[in-house]
Amino acid sequence: MTEANAKDLTSVPEAPPAEVDQKGGAQKEQRKGRERRGGRRSRGQERDSEWQERVVQIRRVSKTVKGGKKMSFRAIVVVGNERGQVGVGVGKASDVIGAVRKGVADGKKHLVKVPLTRHSSIPTLSNGRDGAASVLIRPAAPGTGVIAGGSIRTVLELAGIKNVLAKRLGSKTPLNNARAAMVALSDLRTHKVTAKERGISLEQIYS
User: Fold this and answer.
1) Domain 52-192 classified CATH 3.30.230.10?
2) What b-and-e string marks burial along 85-104, b requiring 16 or more CB atoms within 10 Å of the CB?
3) Low pLDDT (below 50) residues in the chain
4) Distance CA 53, CA 45 (A)
5) What CA–CA distances, in Å, run from 109 to 106, 115, 180, 192?
6) β pairing state of 164-168 and 146-147
């Protein structure tokens, strides 16, 4: 091999520095864009992860239409973040997954803010009614736990209440009981708010 051929093989043309900088800058911008998009997804996932969903009941229902009966599913779903927000939703669809998805969306539209004490209980006794269902909810001492059953227990747990006593006094229907519990929770007021509404001092409330 001659010296000229060796020089041709070893001499590889290098890219101009300006082109290399442009390529590196474009790659950095693409990387930053991917990181930004990933950050948005992670924040959205965090917002979704703070909500918990529990299916209380799934029933197959029918609707009489012209030409026969139309079958569908009804799902009762309770949505809450265990930090004082809870909602009950109902969804109907031709499949179970669609009914649950609609129930979750309906529950997030009807959220109730529950005032919690430092012992994860409720400030006062409350009674709620919905249809033929009646629910009595009263605060409990630390360590008591959630003394309730059925859909009422699900509502109280997802609201973040850890010490409470609840009793069902009317209908056994899960939907009516869950909604009656929501009415009772929505009627709750803190002692400070009650004193302000009545126009008296907080010391008079406690006395």
Assistant:
1) yes
2) bbbbbbbbbeeeeebbbbbb
3) 2, 6-7, 9-10, 12, 15, 18-20
4) 15
5) 5, 19, 17, 28
6) parallel
Instruction: Report the distance separating Cα 150 and Cα 176, nearest Å.
Output: 11
Residue labelled with tokens 């909602």: 87
- Longest CA–CA span in the chain (Å) reads 109
Task: Calculate the alpha carbon distances from 66 to 29, 42, 94 in Å.
Answer: 60, 48, 18
Specify the pLDDT at position 31: 65
pLDDT digits (tens, 9 = 90+) for 126-149: 999 999 999 999 999 999 999 999
Q: Are 164 and 146 in contact (CB under 8 A)?
A: yes
Q: CA distances (Å), 149 to each of 87, 104, 154, 183, 205, in order?
A: 17, 21, 8, 17, 32
C-alpha of 14 from chain center? 58
Domain ranges of the chain: 52-192
Give the number of other Cβ atoms within 10 Å of residue 159's Cβ. 28
3-state secondary structure of 31: helix
Q: Which string of b and e fits 167-187 if b means at least 16 CB within 10 Å? A: ebeeeebbbbbbbbbbbbbee
Both tokens assigned to 196: 């302000």
Note the pLDDT of residue 10: 47
